[in-house]
Amino acid sequence: MDKVRLGKTNLEVNKIGFGALPIQRRNMDDSIAILNRAYESGVDFYDTARFYTDSEEKLGRAFEDVRSNIYLASKTAAETPEDFWNDLETTLKELRTDYLDLYQHHNISFCPKEGDELAKAMAEAKEEGRIRHIGITTHKVTLAHEALDSGLYETLQYPFSYLSGKEELELVEKCRKLDVGFIAMKAMGGGLLKNAKASFAFMNQFSNVLPIWGIQHMSELEEFLSYPQDMIIDDSLRQDIEHDKEELGDNFCRGCGYCMPCPEDINISLCARMSLWIRRFPTEPNMDERTQKIMEGTKDCIECYACVDKCPYELDIPRLLKENYEDYQNVLTGKTIIK
Q1: Which of 32, 64, 232, 284 is paired with 72 by a 20 to 30 Å CA distance?
Q2: Within this chain, do residues 215 and 281 fall inside the same structural domain, yes or no?
Q3: Which of 136, 129, 89 lies closest to 112 in space, CA to CA?
């Protein structure tokens, strides 16, 4: 399995990184089976977060006996030193380890810089040996540049896929020049990209990018493991990529969930991208009574714009909810036929 060097951390990890958010949706036995298979196949970088419910616990149970053979990265959304230390204690306990290879600020509302209390806490944890390297994750390009310009961070985790444009490509190049490791999250567009082969080939173009693939099913892991390490984008894959770019555009919900909870209990992550979901995946399963009820909830939107303030992509979510509800009703009543 090919290696990628994570910038100034000097960590050389296998190019297939494991994103451990989706396994929170699986039971303990299934999760451990998937993690063991990944480990046995040579996957050695695992990214989780305190925010991912029982994900850390599952990694801890799976890898306690092989801890020295892998790299564990976790994240904290803490914005105060007290919460930072509480999160770190809990993370180390759940992961059954006394250190993290990489600890990252998790999509917080500002970029901790030298002199900030939060930055001091992170530096202290590194001095104590409880974390070995410091990173940051964000969905906002302005914060990403702030982090890189600060010189404090050894890695940047940022959304990157074959839908990415000039801004994202510039970040990748800036990381290369600054020797900052670039970790690509949402390599499958938050679940809306169906072409894993094209995604894998796209990532192979960047020697300094580590994609972390969100794995929920054994079949997904096996698919990524089956691809040749030197696979490149051919004419067929290029056509597939251009088709997806045309269909999805830029103004779509990635399902990150940072806009939630909604004060009106609207399932924004589902409802704001239903139009794409029922066209890119089988339509009928999303026409059931349960989904209809969830979509009806969009009518409770009071346009408070709390979700817009929290959206890292600055989407007009109330508008997306209206458009997706209207389209869903048209499909449900037969006014719109999906072929």
Answers
A1: 232
A2: no
A3: 136
Q: Are 278 and 331 spatial neighbours (Cβ–Cβ below 8 Å)?
A: yes
Tell me what the pLDDT averaged over the chain comes to. 94
Read off the pLDDT of each residue in 124-129 and give the average, rounded to a whole number: 97
255 domain-assigned? no
Structure token pair of residue 315 = 């989407």
Q: Could you tell me which residues are beta bridge partners of residue 12? A: 5
Is the C-alpha dihedral spanning 15, 157, 209, 23 positive or negative?
Answer: positive
86 and 230 share a domain? yes
- Single-letter code of the amino acid located at 286: N
CATH number at 99 reads 3.20.20.100
Q: How far apart, in whole angstroms, are the C-alpha atoms of residue 202 and residue 200?
A: 5
Supply the pTM of this predicted model: 0.87
Q: Which one-letter amino acid corresponds to residue 19? A: G
Total domains in the chain come to 2
Range of the domain at 220: 3-234
* pLDDT-derived band at 5, boundaries 50, 70, 90: very high
